Request: fold
Amino acid sequence: MKTNMAEAPRIHFASHWLTIQPSLFDFLEDEVGELDDNQRLFVRIAESVELGRIARKYGWCGNGRKPSSRLAMFKMFVMKHVWNFPTTKDALAEVRRCPSMRRLCGWESQSDIPSESTISRTFGDFAVDEIASSLFKDFVKKVARGRIVIHRSIDSTEIDARESAATRDEKAAAAGIAPAEKIRFRNRSGVERVNGHLHDAHGGRTVRVRGHAKVLLHLMLGLLVIAVEQSAQMLC
Reply:
C-alpha cells in the first residue's frame, strides 16, 4: 500500500510511539507499581515532549551548591495539570504523600523535594524562558510536520468562567451559511471543546498566578497535556 508523503511523519511518530509504549509502561510498573490512567497520560507526556531540553538548559555546571532538579520540578508542574490540582501546594502535598508520583517526577526520597518557595521561584524562571510554549510548538511540529493545514480556527474564552453556549438564534443562523463556512463553524466548535476541556480538566479554572508570563505558562502547561492526550487518541 502506498503511503502519502504528507502522512509519513505522522505514521513514523505513531509507529515509534506504539513500539515504545508497552515496554515503557511495563518497565515503570515494575519500578513504581501499576499505573492508573492519569499516570499513564503523565508518562506519555514525559516520553513525547523533549524534556531533555530542560535538563540541558538548567543543568548544574559544577560551581557552587548543586540546585534542585529543574526537570523534576517541571514534571511536577505538568503533573499538577494532569490531575487538575487547584494549587501548586496541593500538587506538592500529593507528590510528598505518594511514592509513585514522587518517583515519576524524578525524586527518589522526600528529602530530594525542594521547598514550596524554591518551586515558586523556578516557576517564574520557566515563565520568563517560555519553556512550555517552546515545548508545545516543537511537539505540534513533530506530530503535524508535512501535513497541509486547510483551516485555522481561532476562538477566545474567559479563563475565570466557561464560555456561554450558543443561543438558538446563533444555531439557526449557522443553517444558512456557505459549505466552506459550515466546515469552519464545525472546526470552531472543536476549539470550544478544547477550551472547555482546559477549563474543566487541566487548570483553566484555577489560575493562581499574576503577570502575563506566568499566566501564559500556566495555560500552556494545560494545553501541552491536551495536545499529547489528543495525539495519543488519534494514533490509537
User: Anything to note?
Assistant: Residues 5-136 form one domain.
